[in-house]
Write a structure and sequence with these properties.
Elements (H helix, E strand, L loop, with lengths): L1 E5 L3 H12 L3 E5 L3 H8 L10 H10 L3 E4 L2 H5 L4 E4 L14 H13 L4 E5 L7 H16 L5 E5 L9 H6 L4 E4 L3 H11 L9 E4 L1 H32 L3 H9 L20 H14 L5 H13 L2 H10 L7 E5 L14 H11 L3 E5 L4 H5 L4 H5 L3 E3 L12 E4 L11 H7 L4 E4 L6 H6 L3 E3 L7
This protein binds nicotinamide-adenine-dinucleotide.
Length: 446
């Protein structure tokens, strides 16, 4: 099949690369010229395990091409995936500017029947807007061309994106035409061989399914964070509670790890967008509001734990931070908990020494340049360098090399043996026995 994928971010590039890997001919289009040139040179602008090899191999085999021109790419295919960003607008609603720009460009250049697939996460009713945007361009051109719009939300996780795409739990396809349904079934057949993972439904059903999935996962996290905060006040170890409830098959172990808040490009914006959709339909999504509120508060917990120890004025204090990315396995910094922590620390007068195995280049763009110039934020070459003469160490992202560190070395490096563990990676009892002042999330055991 010949396919055009518009947007070469985490979703578009993975989608294009995986379709090409299955033998399809794919052109990935992006308006960001530097990204496209990087890709043409065989360089991957994002960090995603396994992606580079697939992109290079398929590019070499001529199955995966890159272009900055959508009209050019459109000439080669009749199946267009829209995988551009849908960032939060000012009121929390999903900003559809990029999606509708692509739709209009498709309308201006469409020559024959085509299927337009929304892969971006978009609010209920967006397929209708995409259809209308294309149709109005066709009307302006005075031409009649048939086309179908399909909703095919993406469920991949950054850090495991290739595997998720190649072996999905399910493939959701919202469709209202038999012609488009057959084409989508054909395309996804090879990703769904062991058992039928294809789920066809109405277009609006598919649009809401994506938001409901992310909102449910965010709800589990915020719920557990709330119980963890309560456990702290009660002198209860949340780790025991987690295991105790996770073993209930109705609850399960996934997404009930307490921590310093969820981030990333999806959960925060998708929860906000669903709240906004509720408002539009005059429905108060009170659970989702609480999920969002808890998460905002949770992102302050690490700072608050330091504040308990140092007081509000942290002038002269040095804090070593391990992990900047919003989660391990990615360089994505969007809504990362490290951002709120570090900004609060420097505002309180502290100096931050930070290390992340992958995300430091990306992270540099997320803080004011003068903070680096004045030495208030220092990015270190090694995880232990970040602890030199620090008054405390804070674990923000649970990258594997942080999981079993050399605590003796850490104790020697730190000015005060304080460990604030934002991901409950360490054993509080063992660390206390070694003389550390340890605080986890829901594990402040006196
Ligand atoms: N990142 C994830 O883990 C994930 C998972 C599932 C779904 N999603 C959804 O997928 C969508 C894309 O997310 P992402 O993280 O890949 O975004 P991203 O910001 O990484 O990439 C979007 C890309 O689209 C390009 N773009 C914007 N306008 C364009 C246009 N008119 N023509 C061509 N290219 C254009 C941008 O230059 C950028 O490279 C979002 O709706 C997101 O919510 C993301």
């Amino acid at each position: 099949m010949n396919i055009t994928v518009v947007g070469t971010g985490y979703v578009g590039l993975v989608t294009g690369a995986c379709f090409a890997e299955m033998g399809n001919s794919v052109t990935c289009v992006d308006t960001d010229e530097s990204k496209v040139h990087q890709l043409m040179d065989g360089n991957i602008p994002i960090y995603e395990p396994g992606l580079e090899a697939i992109v290079r191999e398929n590019n070499k085999a001529g199955r995966l091409l890159f272009n900055t021109s959508l009209p050019q790419a459109m000439q080669q295919s009749a199946l267009y995936f829209i995988a551009v960003g849908t960032p939060p607008g000012e009121n929390g609603s999903a900003d559809l500017t990029y999606v509708l720009n692509v739709a209009r460009e498709i309308g201006r250049n469409l020559q024959d029947y085509a299927i337009i697939v929304n892969k971006s996460t978009v609010p209920v009713g967006t397929a209708c807007k995409v259809r209308a945007a294309i149709q109005s361009e066709l009307d302006a051109r005075g031409v009649e061309i048939e086309f179908d719009v399909v909703s095919n939300p993406e469920f991949l996780k950054e850090g495991a994106a290739i595997d998720d795409f190649m072996r999905p739990d399910r493939i959701i396809i919202g469709v209202d035409s038999e012609r488009a349904r057959e084409k989508m079934a054909d395309l996804y057949h090879s990703f769904s061989r062991n058992h039928d993972k294809l789920m066809f439904m109405g277009i609006r059903d598919a649009e809401l399914t994506k938001y409901a999935a992310n909102a449910m996962l965010a709800t589990k996290i915020s719920f557990m964070n709330e119980v963890a905060n309560l456990a702290e006040r009660m002198g209860v170890d949340i780790e025991n509670v987690r295991k105790g409830i996770g073993s209930d098959s109705r609850i399960g172990y996934s997404f009930i790890y307490p921590g310093c808040g969820y981030g990333g490009s999806c959960f925060p914006k998708d929860v906000q967008a669903l709240i906004h959709m509720g408002d539009e339909f005059s429905f108060d999504t009170s659970i989702l509001r609480a999920v969002e509120e808890r998460n905002q508060a949770q992102k302050q917990r690490l700072f608050e734990k330091l504040e308990q120890r140092f007081g509000p004025d942290m002038s002269g204090r040095v804090v070593g931070v391990w992990g900047l990315a919003f989660k391990p396995g990615t360089d994505d910094m969007r809504e990362a908990s490290s951002i709120s922590l570090i900004n609060r620390l420097v505002a309180a007068g502290a100096t931050v020494r930070a290390y992340d195995p992958i995300a430091m280049d990306e992270a540099r763009r997320w803080f004011a340049p003068e903070l680096f110039e004045r030495g208030q934020i220092v990015f270190c070459d090694h995880q232990y360098d970040a602890l030199a003469d620090a008054d405390a160490m804070v674990l923000v992202t649970e990258w594997k090399p942080f999981r079993q560190p050399d605590f003796n070395a850490m104790k020697k490096l730190l000015k005060h043996p304080i460990i604030i563990d934002g991901r409950n990676q360490y054993d509080p009892y063992a660390l206390k026995a070694q003389g550390f002042d340890y605080a986890g999330i829901g594990r402040d055991l006196g």
